[in-house]
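note to self: dont lose this again. the chain is below, predicted strucutre after it. 361 aa total, dont forget to put it in the shared folder this time
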Amino acid sequence: MTTNGGSEPVIRRTPVFCGIVPPHILDHLAQHEDQALSDAALRTLQHDSAARVRRRVTAVRTLAAVAAPAAPDTAPHRTIYDAEHRTDLPGTEVRAEGTEPGQDATVNRAYAGLGATFELYLKAYERNSIDGNGLPLNASVHYDVNYDNAFWNGDQMVFGDGDGEIFVDFTTSVDVIGHELTHGVTQYTANLEYYGQSGALNESVSDVFGSLIKQYSLGQSADQADWLIGEGLLAPGVHGVALRSMKAPGTAYDDPRLGKDPQPATMQHYVKTSRDNGGVHINSGIPNHAFYLLATALGGNAWERAGQIWYDVLTGGELRSDATFTDFAKLTVAAAKARYQAGEESEAALKAWSQVGVQAS
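---
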């Protein structure tokens, strides 16, 4: 730790590279006999691999973010760029904060998705943007050619258009936008290491808040929500409904080209692997399911009590960067007791974690 010339500490934080489409799906597509599909997947995998290396060797310096309550008139500062199917970022500015929608629906969806994410964090948790201090929200659309992913690169959002056969435009799902921007929130708060259980928690936290952003924008209660991540991303003809299901991990897709959804719902089927940073996109199904069970047990709007508990843990300063599922579970129970005293919230949290096989007491 160093200082920024004054008394405030500066903490080195290395943002993870995480595309919404996990490597195991792209690996499967890369082996397909249809060369167009395999070429698009290989190109995406090669880009993503190079981007992960860049993220590891280029550390960013940010102030430790403890968000103060935001001012009532706080507003987002969004800028959308068109990468014009190249990989040079950010590209050409095509829409700035406060300007009217244009003819490009992708630009308009990206703008709206950044706004929906900003609004949920502001209205529900009094967090002023990703860093808690009004960070401008930038995004580039039409990235590369047939690029099958979307990602947060530590500074901005990037969206591919998909290949048109397996994936469509990655701005179509607001939960995908919220998921990736939440990696930024985690970067500025708990900074969860992107490997093993802490990496799966990093992924799960993004799924949780991505789903909550969708629910908030649609005005859905926990019982009304679909609890899908990436619903609408799969092209017509693909056998699946989304990339992941928090309600029923392992059921989101089963397609000859994609393979079968490998996510477990409980620790009984925890996957031990060295691939995908220790299975971060696979085992995230377990804490995802725990959150779903808690939110539906409590009822009402999931971003309120259940989401508040998760947010308190993420930003409370007690969550270690190398936390395990058990560490996180215990902190959720403690956070529920701290905020809601001896109410149903802590008991519901204990039960939810127990149902997925994680000890939280």
